[in-house]
Target: FERM domain-containing protein 3
Amino acid sequence: MLSRLMSGSERSLDREFNCTVRLLDDSEYTCTVQRDAKGQWLFEQVCQHLNLLEKDYFGIRFVDPEKQRHWLEFSKAITKQMRSQPPYTMCLRVKFYPPDPAALKEEITRYLVFLQIKRDLYHGRLLCKSSDAAMLAAFILQAEIGDYDPGKHPEGYSSKFQFFPKHSERLERRIAEIHKSELTGQSPETAELNFLKKAQTLETYGVDPHPCKDVSGNAAFLAFTPFGFVVLQGNRRIHFLKWNEVTKLKFEGKTFHIYATHQEDQKIILTYFAPTPEACKHLWKCGVENQAFYQFEKSSQVRTVSSSNLFFKGSRFRYSGKVAKEVMEQSAKIRREPPEIHRAGMVPSRSCPSITHGPRQSSVPRTRRRAVHISIMEGLESLRDSGHSTPVRSVSSGNSFLRSHGNGAEGGHGTAEFSQDPYSPSDSVLPTPVSNDPSDPAQVRHTNGPRSIQEEGGTELCTQNQAKPQGVKPKGKRSQLEKTRPTQHGPEEGVNQVICSLARLFLVALALLFALLLLLIVLTESELDLAFLRDIRRTPEFQQFHYEYFCPLRRWLACKLRWMGGHLTNK
Model:
C-alpha cells in the first residue's frame, strides 16, 4: 500500500511543476503548472494575480541555456518551449509598447508600463539627451519620494538614487533643480503620467534592441517600435521605416532581410547579420509580431508568413493575439472600480535598482513577496561598477494613434542623432547574445552576400552627404567596396532565386521518380505475394507494360552491361 501511494505521488509530481514569474516591480509570483498547460494559462494566472485587464501589451519572457531570450508562445505547451528541466523562471515584461501610454484606460496598466520604461532607462535601452534624461529622472524622483523637503532631502540627495548606468554630478544637480522647482505638488500618479508622456516622444521609446552587424561588419542595433522599424548605430538612428512601408521580413541562417517600399515606390532591402541562427529567427518572429500588432486593423487580417520565398524552405509563423486597435477598443469598454495600486519603493533587483521610500508596498501581496528592502546605499554600492554611460534626446511626436516619430526636422528616413553617447545597452538585458567571434562570416561577407543596406534597383535610402554615425570606425576598404558594387541587384538576385527554386523542384521530382522506379522493381522482380501487389500485377495495363516495355528494356540493359563488362575485361 505504501509503495503504491509513493508511486502515485511520483506520477503526480511528474505531471506538474513549479514556475516562477518575476514581475516588473521585481517581486515574484510562483504557481504550480500542469505539464500539458499552455502559455496562455500561465499568463492568465499572472494577470489575475496583478488584477490586470489591459494585458495584451504584456508578455512572458524566458532565457534558454544558450542565453537566447524568447517570448513565451501562448498557444503552445510550456514544456515544449523549454530547453531545460523544471522548475522554470520567467519574467513579465512589456512586449508591445503602447503608441500613446498616457491614453491607457487604467492606472494599473500605466503603472506597469512606467516600471518597464524606468527599467529601460536604467539599462540604457531608452537613450536620450541629458536634458530629457534629467526631466525623466526628476519625474521618477517625484513619484517615489514626493515633494522636495529640505528637512528630509539634504544637499546632493539626488546622487543617492541610480536612474542610469552612470551619470555625472552636473546631471545630478539638474535633476535636483527640476525636482525642487518644477514638480512640486504632483502626486505619484501625475508624475508617472508626465514621465510616460515625456518618454513617448523619445527616439528610442519602445526599443528592444537586437545586436547585429551590417554588411561591412559594423555593429548595429535593430529594433521594432510602435511606429516602425529602426536601426541604431553609434549615437544615431540611421534608418527608420514606418510599418506600412515594410513589405516583408525574411531570414536565412544568420542573415536578416527587411524589404520595404520607400517614396515613389522605390524598393529598399536592408541586410544585417545576427550573432546566431537562433537569434536571427527570434529577431524575425519579433518583427512579424510587432508589424501585425501595430499595422493591421483587425486580427482576422493577420496571415501566416514564411521566412523565405523559396520552395520547401523556411519557417512559418502567425501572430495569434489581438492587434493594437482591437486592444484600445476593448479597453474603452472596461467598466469597473479602479483597482488599488500599492506602489513599491525601489527594492534590490537582479536587473534594476530601486528607491526606498517609507512604507510603500509591492504591487504583489505581502504573502507572495520575495524581494527584501535594503538601504539606499547598499543598493547603490552594488551598482557602482556598471560600465555604461548615461542616456539622452528627444524628437517631438504627434498624439495620433500610430503617428511616426520620424516626421521631425531630420526627416523620417534620414539619420537622427538622439544622444551624445553611442547606443550601448547592457549585454545582460539584450534579447539576443552578442558574438565577438572574429571568424563570424557576418563580418567578412561583403561582395557576395545579400544586398547592402543602401541599394535595390538603383535606389538609395540614405544620401551620400549624410554624416557617418559617431562611435563607429569605418573599415579601410569600405569606400572602395561601395564603388565596386553593382548598382542594380534586384533582377539579378530575382533570377538567382528562381533558379534555386527550379533546382529544388527538379531534385524533388527526381526523388519521386526514383521512388516510383523502386516500386516498379518491387512489382516486377520481387516475389512478394502481398494482396495489393497481386492485384496490381493482374491488371491488363500492368501486364501490357511488363511484356511490351519493361522486359525489352531489361534485356537491352542486360546486353549493354555484358558488353561493358567484356570490354573492360579485354582491356
The mean pLDDT is 76.
